[in-house]
Structure formats: structure tokens, C-alpha cells
Amino acid sequence: MSEKEILVVVSKVKDYVKSKGMMTSAEAVPALSDAVYKMIDKAIERTKENGRQTIKPQDL
Prior knowledge:
Helix content is 53%, strand content 0%. By secondary structure, it is mainly α. It has one domain.
């Protein structure tokens, strides 16, 4: 299986974490991106179950 594309803006994530007085490990960003993939996949399932093709905020 090919490696998934990172779905988050790394610099923005690091800037936000830094603004909170913390640091970001090299493994954190891919893990965050994986969490986003899972969230989107669940939203897609919910959207299909509701007979729609458009993901809405309530699907997330």
C-alpha cells in the first residue's frame, strides 16, 4: 500500500503547537493526518447513510 498524503499544513500545526508553549515531534504530524483521514472516512460513511453526497458539519 502506498503512503498516504499528509492532509494537514505542517507549518500551521507546528506554529499552533508552538504558540501553546509546546514542541511537535516528527511522528506527531503523520499521526494527526491519520486522525483526519479517519474523521473524513467516518463522515463519508454517515453522509452515504443519510442518502447525500455532500459532507456537512454534522457528519464530522
